[in-house]
Every structure is written in structure tokens, then in C-alpha cells.
Amino acid sequence: MVSTHEKKTNLARLIIPSSSSSPSPSPSITSPHVIHSRSHSFVGPSPRFNPSSTPLFFLQEDDDEDEEKEPLSSDPVKIGPSDFHILRVVGQGAFGKVFLVRKKGNCFDGDGDGDGDGDGVFAMKVMRKDTIIKKNHVDYMKAERDILTKVLHPFIVQLRYSFQTNSKLYLVLDFVNGGHLFFHLYRQGIFSEDQARLYTAEIVSAVSHLHSKGIVHRDLKPENILMDSHGHVMLTDFGMSKEIDELGRSNSLCGTVEYMAPEILLAKGHNKDADWWSVGILLYEMLTGKAPFTHTNRKKLQEKIIKEKVKLPPFLTSEAHSLLKGSFSRLLCTQPHSEDLAILIKMQNELFL
């Protein structure tokens, strides 16, 4: 087991360049009860595997806490915290905060929708290095940054800059101002079938792109899906994502229980099929207002996911039943077949015509 002192010694030797921007009617029936009490994402190794001791990717540790000093980067054009005006806090998590910021020197020259970088407004995710090391989440933070530099898709939030100071990590992403999918679902209770079809098609498109890059998201849920100003979805939060090759499997226990595939809970090893299970759960939740498996006790919830079959509520229309029993019912199994997923992708493409 690597000690914290050894980790910090190794971290002091590691610096990488900062990244720069990439190219750039509600149903008439009574709504079902919406579940307000939800699990939180958690991540950890399978009991059969030891935690990784890989050093954090772009950290350098010392006792200087001055956050306004030059960022630790060998890039000739240095970007750091002092290049942004902090407007307000928009989120807070276990490792730090998310700020709404405006890049200095940017006059408003966008189209006024508040998305993208036309007005110089971004979401800045700030994470404390000591907290990351203490919680042994070094590998996950490294993966999040690396993965965000590799994806470019209209339904995935884009990383614009990444840099660091002696005590914190910074990821600067497009600010998406439409709120979380969870907020919209909570407010409406359920989505119309047309809404659910569109959102699911866009989610499938984004997940397919990730998988084409060998990336598994592993924490798909309404809280990790943003809505832009035009009503389109944007996947975000890649802190639990992982690159897995076509024949590889991961043994980490990660995600949010309600959306976890049975093979993750059983510690059998999982791959990209785990994401398709989560997409099926998302579709069910959009149409019914709650996930198909719920329980206040986490252990009993896990048992339900592993042992029980999905039950479709009677208030759904025949078209919705057909949708869930047809292409998307193939998602709600532990081992979807490649031909089933091909049908799903075909359906997703047809929804945009």
C-alpha cells in the first residue's frame, strides 16, 4: 500500500501541459408518485481487488496555497485562475465546487443563448488535491480529464481548459444553462412519450460516441444530464468513467445504485453493456416518474435489481409499452446482444428524421 507521503513525493514530479479548447403535452392521466429520496453516486474497488496507487496525473504538491500564482503548466500560453472572473457558485460536491465564470477579455459576442463560449461564460470545476488523495480517487480524477479531452459530440459537455495550482485542479467546461434533466423530471412528474423519445435518442447518440472511443460512462442518471437552452440533452460528470477495450472488463463497484447493472452489483466484471442498462432505466423513469427498482434500504434495493423483472405500469399507452418491451427491453438485461444494440442505434437514428 502506498503511503500518502510517498504519493505526494511522486506527485511533485508530475506536470503536464494544460489543455486548450477543442475545435469547436403532458399526459391527461394523474402523474405517478415521484421518488424524492435518491442514492448518491459512489465508487470503490471490488473487495477482490486492491485500490490503485497511481499518482494523480497533473499534480504538484508544496506548501504554497497562493491560488493566484501562475498555473503549473509548460504550455507557452498559460491559462490559470486569474484569467477568469468568478460570477457565482453553481454547484458543490465531495471534492470541491463548480463556479460560473467569465473569461477575462471576452466581450459578449455570442448569439445570446448562454451555451458554449461565445460570451466567455464557462463552468469551472475546482477540486482540492488533498481531498482527492485522501479519498483515494486519484485514478478517477485522472480519467475524467483524459476522457474529456478525447470526446467531441453535440450531446456531451465539452472541456475547454484544464490547469492546476499547488493545491487545486481546475476543469473549465461549457456552461449549459437549462438545468439538470432531474430538475425537469421532478417538476413535470413524467415526460410525454415524444419528450422521452427525443431525450433518449440523444442520450443513445452520446453514449454510442463514448463507446466508439472505448469509454464507458458508468454513472448515467438524470442528475448527470444537462439541458441546453434549445432543449437538447448534454451528458456531463465523467468522474466515474473509464476506458475499457473491446474485450476488457472492469471490476470496480461504481455508479448510483438505482441505475447500476446487475453485473456491477454482482462484481462479475462489467463493460459498456452496463451503460445500456442505465439508458433503459432512464427511459423507464422518464415515462413513469421513478426508476423501476426502488427501496429505502440499499441492500434490499440491490437484491431487487439482481432478482426481479421490470414491471410496466398500466397507465402507459400501448405505444410506450411497445417501446419498452421492444428495442429498449433489450437494455434491461445483464448481457445485451450486439444485434439488439444495432436495432437500438437504428431506432435512435430514425427518431431524428
TrEMBL record:
Entry keyword Kinase:
yes
**Enzyme class, spelled out:** transferase
For bias type Low complexity, the affected ranges are 15-32
One Pfam family recorded for the sequence: Pkinase
The Protein kinase domain covers which part of the protein?
84-353
Q: Which region is the signal sequence?
A: none
Q: Superkingdom, according to UniProt?
A: Eukaryota
This protein is called: non-specific serine/threonine protein kinase
> Which CDD domains does its entry note?
STKc_AGC
